[in-house]
Amino acid sequence: MYTQKLHAGSEFPDVSATLHSGESVSLDNRREGCDWKMVVVYRGKHCPICTKFLNALEDYKARLLELGVDFVAVSADSKAQLDAHLDDLSITFPIAYGLSEQDMKTLGVYISQPRSEKETDHNFAEPALFVLNKDNKVQIIDVANAPFVRPDLEQLVSGLEFIRKPENNYPIRGTHSS
After folding, report:
1. Alpha helices in 3-114 (DSSP H)
2. pLDDT per residue over 25-36, tens digit each?
């Protein structure tokens, strides 16, 4: 099965999910004081690598917010699955559930079927990360087809620190087509 991928520099699509609080939110909404947004798509409660990554992301929250980069994590899990997952998470950033299969296709993420009922009860997104600039364009994109491939958070945040300095005038990379 092939998926349509988002491209660097493209407009981020209007995709919504439900925050743990029950509030529906557009994934590109930004908190006050932030003009950029990072959307982290994770596999779900069943993935211990996702749990580790989300917990590590918490350590970068202050640096990201200092840069004006808001962020949210989202999966296709149900509310009950997210509630259970919170027992293993030590995070204070927004986390959402209910990403539909159509939303996953719109985002261009890889979609997997569970290996068994013990894993989960629905198709789920493989890991992806999108950083949206102030114009809602995809500045950085990372889409993986397996849980073992994720950006190094220190390198990512250090890179965002570089990009966000106006004197660096750093463009969106990967937009040249032959």
Report:
1. 48-58, 61-66, 79-85, 101-107
2. 999 999 999 999
Cα–Cα distance between 175 and 19 in angstroms, integer?
32
Which residue type is seen at 96?
A
The number of distinct structural domains making up the chain is: 1
Tell me the average pLDDT of the chain: 93
End-to-end Cα distance, the chain: 25
How far, in Å, CA of 148 to CA of 150, rounded?
Answer: 6
pLDDT above 80 (res 176): no
Give CA–CA dist 10/85, Å, rounded. 32
Q: Which domain holds residue 37?
A: 16-157
The alpha carbon dihedral of 97, 90, 87, 127 has a sign of positive
DSSP conformation class of 132: E
Domain presence at residue 7: no
pLDDT tens-place string over residues 38-85: 999 999 999 999 999 999 999 999 999 999 999 999 999 999 999 999
